[in-house]
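Many introductory courses stop at the sequence. We go one step further.
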Amino acid sequence: MTSGSDLHWHVRSFMARRRWSAARQRLADWLLSLRQLPAPPDELLLLGGSAGWMMSPEFLAGFKQVVLVDIDPWAARLFRLNHGGTLKRHGIVLEFVQGDAHALLGDILGEYPQACVLFDNFLGLDSIYTRSLDLTARRLRGLRGRMRGRLWGSVHDRLSGPGTADWAGAACWSQHWRWPSAQPLPQQDLFASVQAQGQWLDHHTEPVLPPGLQTHLIPWPIIPGRWHWLQAGWVDDRGGR
């Protein structure tokens, strides 16, 4: 997720490809778990997908159409640069809608009523934009109602802060972390695995996913010396009303 046109983010992401490789594989494992659910749709609404620096080509290959919604005008061009080969080989149609995914959500959902929806690592920035924890909590809780009847998922920041663990040897890679949503996180274990130091930030994304959902916790060494813990989960509410 980027805010407006942020070429610095794209340059940093390009340079970080090797450092992000293990996190990208963990994210791919979660993304591909969608295929274990019955009859996944062949359309994907990719909200906040940016240039797809952390996206799995194998996951994209399961769709016939991808609708990328992002505020960044560079997103579509760079997404095609990163994933154009996959799109071409599998005949995937990519459409780009530029704008605020929150503001456009109602219209996009109405236009693609059967599509799978993925909130791609931007909901953790919500409190920065709203500058109100109460407003963020209401807005994020409200997403579940708006997704009623859908197959949808989200990966988002839960915690972030400084950690001295080297990305290649960090203890966090020694296990796949699973955790029920809306349960207190095992912070001591998460912090210890990345050798956390100093003050960490809570991104206030606990309300995104419904309580009790089995989720993946994914460590992400975003820049040297700073780690994020992402939470990711799929919600199959196609029987909901």
